[in-house]
TrEMBL record:
GO molecular function, one term: transcription cis-regulatory region binding
Pfam family, one: LacI
CDD domains on file: HTH_LacI, PBP1_LacI-like
Domain of life: Bacteria
Span of domain HTH lacI-type: 15-69
Protein name: LacI family DNA-binding transcriptional regulator
Protein keywords: DNA-binding, Transcription, Transcription regulation
Amino acid sequence: MPRQGSRGPDGNARPNSRHVAARAGVSVGTVSNVLNRPDLVAPATREKVEAVMREMGFVRNASARQLRMGRSQTVGLLVLDIVGPYFTAVAKGVEQRMAEAGFVLMLCSSDRDPQTEERQLAQLEEHGVSGILIAPSTTNLAQVDGVRSRGTPVVLLDQPSPDAGRCSVAVDDVKGAAMAAHHLLEQGHRRIALINGPEHIQQAADRRRGLHQAVARAGLDVGDLVEEVVVPALVASEGEHAVGLLMSEQQPPTAIMCVNDLVALGALRGLHARGLRVPEDVALIGYDDVEFASVLAPALTSVRRPKHEFGRRAAELLLEEIDPGVGHSHQQVMFQPELIVRGSTDPSQGGTRRASNR
């Protein structure tokens, strides 16, 4: 049974501003100011109106407000997946900042599929969101630019904009992968495998490029030293399967770099299943440094990417795009990665250390 306060005095399904004004003994304009411009209302009056709202179970009609303002208070977040812990942490940062600004977040996943991404973008447009944060599933930004051309602000997430015409927030993944590779080369590894993601994903391409750059910089031949296995999904089971392929070779790798920590978790499981010691037989590096990386046995060396602060910064850029002030310009923000060395590459590491920023 709904409580008595859930209906207005005239029997409407829910109380509206007129009902609140009548009970509080103020004008409808005062109620509107309490909702939208509380700084214009005397504190005592504001408190009285808010008390009546609570008593009556008043809920703001967001749809009507959106019609008046000409835009919704909803933004879209379209990420590559909502299963992995990295984007979950990023989404938390986005949601927190958007909530502070009075926006509701609509979360979608492309599952790294360009066609799914296209459908999700269309649905977000149909819902009339005020803006979209997107981690693109491909380097082809035609769909994104189409959305922008129709008036919906878009900020690229986890992929740098190729030009100054868009806002983006990304991490220097070429540098991150190069740092991981340099660490392995310093330890004497000369057969390094990369368990990587699909070709069309920018992050996978950047990790490959960083590995190749580090090997070439060391004066070594990429073709002789590096082997790559591309997995269709960035999940633990694919990492375990890839390890089975790699370790069955005549000359298996002595070190494995993984596209993310979930894949590294599966790789670790696969190595243990074959009786191989990590790092004594095979060194292992993940990417993202999610929460579970430090509690694995051995603890996982990983390239740390910012998560919560990354999401907040992206949200701030989108808010600026939604309501641009005087002198607003598109920004391309690039966060720096950090290599966190743990026991999966260095048996002397009972704890954790940060590698030099190379």
